Amino acid sequence: MKKTSFTVLKKTISKATNIIIVTHINPDGDAMGSSLGLYQYLKNKKKKVQVVVPNAFPDFLAWLPNSNKVSVFEKNKDKVEKQIQKSDLIFVLDFNNYKRIEKLGEIIQQSTAQKILIDHHQQPDTAFDYFFHDVNACSTCQLIYDFICGIDSPRSLDKKTATCLYTGIMTDTGSFRFRGTNEKTFSIAAALIKAGAPNAEIYSRVYDDYTQDRLKLLGYCLHEKLTFVPGYKVAYMAVSEDELKQFDYKKGDTEGIVNYPLSVGDIDVAAFFSEKEGSIRISFRSKKFDVNKFARAHFNGGGHINAAGAKSHGTLQETVQKFVTVLKQYAKELKK
Ligand SMILES: [Mn+2]
To answer: How much is the pTM?
Structure first.
């Protein structure tokens, strides 16, 4: 593992002729914001850059500058593979384990390009040439801001870059309220607003653009699906593909639903299970309990202490059953 030095990173970027930026599966605001923010910065520096995502990003992020230039691996496997083979520098953003992006991860690992990791998730893989990694950063977008300021200066942030980075900071901090949001986060947010990020408009674009069906799906989950585990500080919701279909489900529609149970005073852990394309996606959120460890230990997932994700190949029922059963191992921490 080489130590990150801005001088070295700057030289690595200036030598590169074909740069790829890749982010995680089911890209969220921080994944897209950091990728497109860095993309815009490098474009301004006249570099040849391509953003690659494993699968499509949700519609509520489609307004981000240059999102129309992103390559989706799932839709264009051959084209993306060629782009990666041609590249000599790859940025890996907002995730740190190639396995999470399956086949795309294998292609990247096989490429001879230098790889720079910029990420804030726990326990990164070691298969990168350079690391810009901090689990205490509230978002990868905050790290991209530090990265750009480190190799260049805050003055190099234009309105588009600032807009992308502000979006990721806002979404990953739950609009500046999650743990990890600190003085530094606010001062970077202020710098981004100064650089032109239209903060109120960004909020509105991300959170005030639900479809009627999406809002009704949220209502359905809270009214029909929310289950409090008796005796435990735990609540969960599980929705099947058929139920999602009733609400004309579009990618991103279940985003954020997992947070709602935490608004109950004595609930420490919330889980959301959704059946999508035959497998089960799981999101965990907590106030105190370490859901990263929990997701790693039992569901082959991971993330942060208070927010983690996983995928299960069992049925929806089996997955929920397993969750409720393994909770018993944590009775000491999670019993009321
Ligand atoms: Mn993130």
So the answer is: 0.91
Compute the distance from residue 168 Cα to the ligand 1 centre, in Å: 7
Cβ-count burial of 251 within 10 angstroms (0-12 exposed, 13-18 middle, 19+ buried)?
A: middle
Q: How far is the CA of 117 from the centre of ligand 1 (A)?
A: 13
pLDDT per position as a tens digit, 167-200: 999 999 999 998 889 999 999 999 999 999 999 9
Q: Across the chain, where does the E strand assignment appear?
A: 19-23, 49-53, 71-72, 89-93, 114-119, 130-133, 227-228, 234-239, 269-276, 279-286, 302-303, 307-312
Fold adopted by 212-334 = Diaminopimelate Epimerase; Chain A, domain 1 (3.10.310)
Centroid of ligand 1 to alpha carbon of 122 (angstroms)? 11
Hey, what CATH class is 6-207 in? alpha beta
pLDDT number for residue 1: 42
